Amino acid sequence: MYTSTEHLVKNRTAMKATFLDLRKRSRDIVRALDQNQSVTLFYRGKPKGVIVPASKPSEKRVSIMSHRAFGMWRERSDMKNVRGAVARLRKARHAL
User: Looking at the 3D structure of the chain, how many domains does it have?
Assistant: First the structure.
């Protein structure tokens, strides 16, 4: 078991940490991820996994009108009256 933080080896691209560090030193691990470093997790001295920084979401805003699902029932004649279509769907449920 590690008794100091010497095992938290950091360099520009990677960091090594134990599962105990996930509990006790999580702030340092999150800080490393913020700096775009990957974190290799060790359990009993053997590597068990790697935590990689998430890619940042794109700042590009997309209109809902451009989504392919928008207006997909445009040509359906039975959906012209939305209230009537919903009433037909719920009719079987309310008949119980």
Answer: 1
